[in-house]
């Protein structure tokens, strides 16, 4: 699903020796996949840990192994909650990893599979769009973003927030269609980087305040007229 010419980088396992205040101990297992470190960088073997190691902002500069349909991943999303993410052709089925009880299906964006957003798969597809798990609401539970479209400028994602009361994820109405989203736990902000041309880009920042995200501002970078 990656754009041609993407650079390969090593997949590092996240360490938990020094645990920040709002961090979560990530546990990811795959039903039938070898460790990522056992494969060449040009063709990495699938590991569920890639969804914990990378962010949407890493999308173009990383090689993520294809997430094949049926290759489920179990994640400890926090406070004893273990969920199974199973990609199918219609969406990602989420269930309780312990009991097997079905919780919900996250439907894919049609844009991810059409010939414009995904020229590598203009007809049919055999893999799911990647997800990225991060605790963006600072409540001790992992939330996730899912790729809805991509181009040579990067990936566009929607954010889904875990609701512990409902024990399911809800789509954030503000954090949708964000380009190359970069989350900062230090500033409690998510910044979308939109590269409109080789000489011009736009940064849009969303701040976490009063338990939800709001538009905080924007900035233009570059000057095409100066070239």
Q: How would you portray this structure in words?
A:
The protein has about 230 residues and is mostly beta strands. It is about 0% helix and about 40% strand. The protein has one helix and 16 strands. The protein has one helix at about 50-55, and strands at about 30, 65-70, 75-80, 80-85, 90-95, 100-105, 125-130, 130-135, 145-150, 155-165, 170, 180, 180-185, 190-195, 200-210, 210-220. The strands form four sheets. It has a five-stranded antiparallel beta sheet with strand order 1-3-4-5-6, with no helix packed on it. The longest helix is centred in the first third of the chain and has 4 residues, at about 50-55. The radius of gyration is 17 Å and the shape is globular. The chain starts with about 25 loop residues before the first strand and ends in a 6-residue tail after the last strand.
**Largest sheet features:** 5 strands, antiparallel
Please, what is the average pLDDT? 78
Helix fraction, binned, reads: under 10%
SSE pattern, N- to C-terminal: EHEEEEEEEEEEEEEEE
Count of alpha and pi helical runs:
1
Structural class: mainly beta
If you compute it from the alpha carbons, what radius of gyration comes out, rounded to the nearest whole angstrom?
A: 17 Å
Compile the SSE list and pairings.
Blueprint: E1 28-30, H1 50-53, E2 67-68, E3 73-78, E4 81-87, E5 91-96, E6 102-107, E7 127-128, E8 131-134, E9 143-151, E10 154-163, E11 168-171, E12 178-179, E13 182-184, E14 189-197, E15 200-209, E16 212-221
Antiparallel strand pairs: 1-3, 2-7, 3-4, 4-5, 5-6, 8-9, 9-10, 10-11, 10-12, 13-14, 14-15, 15-16
